[in-house]
Specification:
319 residues; alpha/beta; eight-stranded parallel beta barrel; 14 helices; globular; binds phosphoenolpyruvate; binds magnesium ion
Length: 319
């Protein structure tokens, strides 16, 4: 019995009827590995690499980066590790990479993959460091770009990854245009990961840094759920066996919303490690059909609060 309790607390994620939903950790560097392992993460779904680039006057060298990537790959033998390339700009400014002009709306400025277009050398160094760090480890290394808005950006990034020897390029879905036209982007990459923090910001036109509009920054809003469906269904249709579409924004850490996301077609969930047991338990108490019913109920609502109430009414196993 003790073993059963332990495996419910740390085992692989699945719905009550056994539909697997890998549960992964969001990390910001090797120092977060201990918590990820302690809470039973099956891998890393979002490695935010910004920390390497912050508070310095020059970009980190390939060797410095390799030293920060390798321990993460080694911590998950045979497991998935999704690394996000540098997401500078907007809420993550870098001292050595100031914006090329004054940006009145930094969230709409030159951030994420857009910055790589102007500084392809920084991208090339990061991709080379990732490929070198992956060598000799058994982790399934996936590399994704943030802030992709167009198919051309997805193709450009995926080609650079493959050129560097990284065989599983992906993109984050956090700009509404990418979700709305997800089928155009899905062919270029191996997977999607939805960043609900930014996707909500851009869908509701509510800056995530401005507290006066924080009430609009709610991933339960049915407009956000609709965008999730577009991305997940495009990924599922993009190859005979379907391509993965995870969620790595804060929404994945809300047990009720995690069930709804699975019901919408999301295939893995990544979150801050302490949320993993709660999400694992909520999924384990509901069938895939109950998750789908909760998702339908949420999308039928007209507000974020209404969506949450309607979904919870379909999820009797929530604490
Ligand atoms: C997101 O936007 O949901 C995300 C996971 O990325 P970040 O919060 O780092 O922008
Ligand atoms: Mg983001």
């Amino acid at each position: 019995a003790r073993r059963a309790v332990l495996s419910a607390a740390t085992g692989p994620g699945a719905t009550a009827d056994g539909h697997p939903v890998p549960l992964l950790a969001n990390i910001g560097g090797p120092r977060d590995l201990e918590a990820a392992l302690a809470y039973g993460a099956e891998g890393v779904g979002l490695y935010r690499t910004e920390f390497l680039f912050l508070d310095r006057d020059t970009a980190p060298t390939a060797e410095e980066q390799e030293a920060a990537y390798r321990p993460v790959f080694e911590a998950f033998p045979g497991g998935r590790v999704v690394v996000r390339t540098l997401d500078a700009g907007a809420d993550k400014p870098l001292a050595f990479l100031p914006p090329s002009e004054e940006e009145p709306n930094p969230a709409l400025g030159e951030r994420g993959v857009r910055m790589f277009r102007r500084h392809p050398g920084i991208m090339a160094t990061q991709l080379a460091a990732l490929a070198a760090a992956a060598e000799g480890t058994t982790a399934e290394v996936e590399v994704m770009a943030p802030m992709v808005a167009t198919a051309a950006e997805a193709e450009w990034f995926a080609a650079a990854c493959r050129e560097a020897g990284l065989r599983r390029p992906g993109i984050m879905i956090e700009v509404p245009s990418a979700a709305l036209r997800a089928a155009d982007l899905a062919g270029a990459v191996e997977f999607f990961s939805i960043g609900t923090n930014d996707l909500t910001q851009y869908a509701l036109a509510a800056d995530r840094q401005v507290s006066a509009v924080a009430g609009l920054q709610n991933p339960w809003h049915p407009a956000v759920l609709d965008l999730v469906v577009l991305a997940a269904s495009a990924a599922a249709s993009a190859s005979p066996q379907g391509k993965g579409c995870g969620v790595c924004g804060e929404a994945a850490a809300d047990p009720a919303l995690a069930c709804v996301l699975v019901g919408l077609g999301v295939t893995s969930l990544s979150m801050g490690a302490p949320a993993l047991p709660w999400v694992r338990a909520a999924l384990g108490r509901h069938t895939l059909e109950q998750c789908a019913a909760a998702a339908r109920a949420a999308r039928s609502a007209v507000s974020a609060a209404g969506a949450r109430d309607a979904a919870r009414a379909e999820l009797p196993g929530l604490a």
